[in-house]
Design a protein that fits this description.
The chain is of the alpha/beta class. Helices cover about 35% and strands about 10% of the residues. It is built from 15 helices and 10 strands. It has a 10-stranded mixed β-sheet. Helix 2 packs parallel to helix 3. The termini are far apart.
Length: about 400
């Protein structure tokens, strides 16, 4: 098998582009509708859908599972028939013995019994966007009238539960939620066994300028600049990020290991054990998680849907050629190659690898650019959890459960 045949990648598909029935305050995607006529059709055509499903399946090495990840905007706006067609096409183009899975990220407000039945029948994994209890969630996740969406989200979650659909929580960490870690965690673990915390970090000019551009240097130094100068008011600060994770980790490690699964805890543990994290943010390189827009355009990453990072269109060039292009591989390798010296000398380098490139917009003490804005928070988290992580890694390496940590915690 050649190197190209071994090169796997994933595509996050946005069949409805930025269209959404909510108007979340911190959404970094909805503004992409700006400048487009109200009559513009954001919905993916059946032709683009078939081209994508066929090419994506054919592009993956034989024997490797193929995961379809549907997102938006709000993908439910495409309607059930669109996804019924997608499943039919997956069966049509599936290779013998090939495993195909589907993940679906949604605000859950439109999920009724019909959607839930479809998800269960076709083994979809559902990621539900929910930021915590009602008062926290409704602060930023609102509809077009500015009213909170919590009750509709929980109704959707209840439909998923009733129909035995696999689902997890996608939780944005904002300036508001960062103040209430245990309040949020206690709520979440009553309803979800799998939780992903997503720090909200948006530069103030995020709608105008593509991040992580080569040779870009917006400021000469961090000195004298406040977080409020750098990021939007709803963004989490580095200190808040670290404190939030540390407080939840302390509760988790005493009570919930093996019962509640938190993405950053699991993947940090994997890095402590020497395994590559499944999360690109904590890996040495990235570039294997691309985005397909409704019109067939392919971009380097979900956070880099800017003209500078457009790879091409699947109606003009095979998907595999775009994903394995020199520019995309270079994009992924840049995460490591452009790492500042402060990171390379850090004791936690192999746990973090500089974090997500989209957040690398501050400067080191020596004036190098591309230090991760969340660096201070990551360092706090890795330091605070190191003893427990080492213990759990040792237990797993000796074929004992990581949950043994709960016997000595407290």
């Amino acid at each position: 098998m050649t190197d190209k045949e071994k090169y796997t990648f994933e595509i996050m598909v946005k069949p409805s582009g930025p269209l959404c029935n909510l108007n979340c305050v911190y959404c970094f995607y909805k503004y992409k509708q700006n400048g487009c006529a109200s009559s513009y059709n954001w919905k993916m055509s059946s032709k683009i859908l078939e081209t994508f499903v066929r090419d994506y399946i054919q592009s993956q090495p034989t024997g490797y599972p193929v995961q379809f990840v549907w997102q938006g905007g709000e993908p439910c706006l495409m309607g059930l028939d669109f996804f019924r067609k997608a499943v039919e096409l997956q069966k049509k183009y599936k290779k013998p013995g090939q495993e195909i899975t589907n993940a679906f990220q949604t605000n859950a407000t439109l999920i009724d019994s019909k959607w839930a039945e479809f998800f269960r029948e076709n083994n979809f994994l559902i990621g539900v966007s929910i930021d915590g209890p009602e008062d926290i969630h409704n602060r930023y996740r609102v509809n077009s009238a500015g009213k909170g969406s919590f009750n509709m989200v929980m109704a959707g979650v209840e439909n998923l539960r009733k129909h035995n659909v696999d689902y997890n929580a996608l939780v944005c960490m904002t300036d508001i939620s960062a103040q209430n870690p245990l309040y949020i965690y206690d709520f979440l673990k009553k309803h979800f066994n799998f939780i992903q915390f997503i720090p909200v970090v948006e530069e103030r000019d995020f709608k105008k300028e593509a991040p992580f551009q080569k040779n870009s240097k917006k400021w000469a130094t961090n000195k004298g600049r406040k977080y409020s100068d750098l990021v939007t008011e709803w963004s989490v600060t580095p200190e808040e990020f670290g404190t939030f994770l540390n407080k939840i980790f302390d509760s988790w490690v005493q009570n919930d290991v093996g019962r509640i699964f938190i993405q950053i805890f699991d993947y940090t543990l994997a890095n402590w054990m020497g395994y590559p994290a499944a999360l690109c943010v904590l890996n040495r390189t990235c570039g294997r998680g691309l985005v397909l827009e409704h019109n067939g355009d392919v971009y380097a990453c979900d956070h880099f849907v800017y003209p500078e990072y457009r790879l091409g269109n699947i109606t003009e060039k095979p998907l595999a050629e775009l994903a394995r292009s020199k520019s995309q591989i270079g994009f992924g390798n840049d995460k490591w190659e452009r790492l500042p010296g402060q990171c390379r000398g850090c004791e936690y380098l192999n746990l973090c690898f500089g974090g997500c490139p989209r957040n690398r917009f501050i400067f080191t003490d020596d004036g190098e650019n591309e230090l991760n804005y969340l660096c201070e928070g990551y360092r706090s988290f890795f330091s605070h959890t190191s003893k427990a992580m080492k213990f759990m890694a040792n237990e797993l390496n000796n074929h004992r459960p990581a949950s043994n940590i709960m016997k000595i915690s407290g």
